[in-house]
Amino acid sequence: MRLALTEARAAGAAGDIPVGAVVLDPDRAVLGTGRNDREHTADPTGHAEIVALRAAAARLRTWRLTGCTLVVTLEPCTMCAGAAVQARLDRIVYGAADPKAGAIGSLWDVARDRRLNHRPEVLAEYLAPDCAQPLTEFFTHRRVR
Fold first, then answer.
1. Among 111, 76, 104, 60, which Cα is nearest to 90's?
2. What are the C-alpha distances in Å from 136 to residues 67, 74, 140?
3. How does DSSP assign 111-141, residue by residue?
4. What single DSSP character describes residue 110?
5. Are 71 and 90 within 8 A, CB to CB?
6. pLDDT averaged per 10 residues, the chain (length 145)
7. How far apart are CA 9 and CA 75, in angstroms?
8. CA distance 124 to 16
9. Which residues are the active-site residues?
10. Is the pTM of this model over 0.90?
11. Which residues make beta-bridge pairs with 32?
């Protein structure tokens, strides 16, 4: 999660919402990292999770990330939760809950929906206060301007 937090802070410094993500292999080696980059790339899919999943898939040369773990500082949205399910990740670990758009328990529960063919294990609110801090600072600063 600390590496994901580093990515989140870099996203915030670049003017994007500070969310960071890391994909780990079964031995906990880093396969891919990502940070929100929608502002920089003008890409609506530029969420930290998607960037990290793409990097991991490219490194492994397969879209199946079986055995892997997605670690992200903010609860994934519906797009990112769906991508995690489609990638066949074994688990998702997230930091801060997202009551406005979270799709792993807050508003929806895509990752644990029994109607889907794959359901990763979910570890929620890991280091939540640490993960919430960059978001709080980012939006507080934005409101002041």
1. 111
2. 33, 12, 6
3. GG-TTSS---EEE--TTHHHHHHHHHHHHHH
4. G
5. no
6. 98 97 98 97 97 98 98 98 98 97 96 94 98 95 75
7. 16
8. 23
9. 49
10. yes
11. 23
